Amino acid sequence: MRQLAAVALVGVLALVGCAAEEASPAPAPSSSGSRGGAEAGAATDPELDAFRAALEGHSPADPAALVAAVEAAGFERSAIERTREVDSLGEPVTFLEVAVRQGESCLLGQVGDGEPTALRVDALGGGRCLVGEIVTVD
Questions:
Q1: Which is more confidently placed, 32 or 89?
Q2: DSSP for 4-64, written as a single string
Q3: For position 42, what pLDDT does the model report?
Q4: How far apart are CA 136 and CA 138, in angstroms?
Q5: If phi over 0 gives left and psi between -120 and 50 gives alpha, with beta otherwise, what is residue 130?
Q6: Which residues are 96's β-sheet partners?
Q7: How much helix, strand and coil, in percent to the nearest 5, is found in the chain?
Q8: Which of 28, 30, 40 is nearest to 119 (CA)?
Q9: How far is Cα 130 from Cα 128, in angstroms, rounded to an integer?
Q10: Which among 23, 31, 108, 120 has most CB atoms closer than 10 A?
């Protein structure tokens, strides 16, 4: 009985010790994905800024104009991917994603309701930027 009580006490102390540990702080968001200018001390990303500017004023309803704006901003047409403008039921999508592959990274943007968003992310293992069924721009 004494052994059982000792084992139980050690188990309880171990659980209390685990609960008392401080949680690791969450990583800070990357400044490359933030809107507006660079934060103090952060490096600027002119390609991301140009990409973000190309997304301004576009909607999911006109993906050809969006791709043309990205291309006009200096990005190679063959490196551009986008999602479809209609969903699986044939209805217009609320948001359209567009991406530009640049070596081991991608510029990833989204247009739809509200302001467009853009950030730089690592390319996917298969060499693409977007997941799922995409439209490759030729």
A1: 89
A2: HHHHHHHHHHHHHHHHHSPPPPPPPPPGGGSSSSPPTTPPP-HHHHHHHHHHTT--TT-HH
A3: 60
A4: 6
A5: beta
A6: 111
A7: 35, 20, 45
A8: 30
A9: 6
A10: 108
* Distance of alpha carbon 68 from alpha carbon 21, whole angstroms: 53
Beta pairing class for 117-122 and 80-83: unpaired
Whether the Cβ atoms of residue 47 and residue 107 lie closer than 8 Å to each other: yes
CA proximity to 100, closest of 71, 125, 62 = 71
Using a pLDDT cut of 90, give the percent of the chain over it: 57
User: Does the pLDDT of residue 26 top 70, yes or no?
Assistant: no
Q: Can you read off the two tokens belonging to residue 124?
A: 């996917």
The length of the chain is 138
Phi, psi of 2 (to 5 degrees): -65, -40
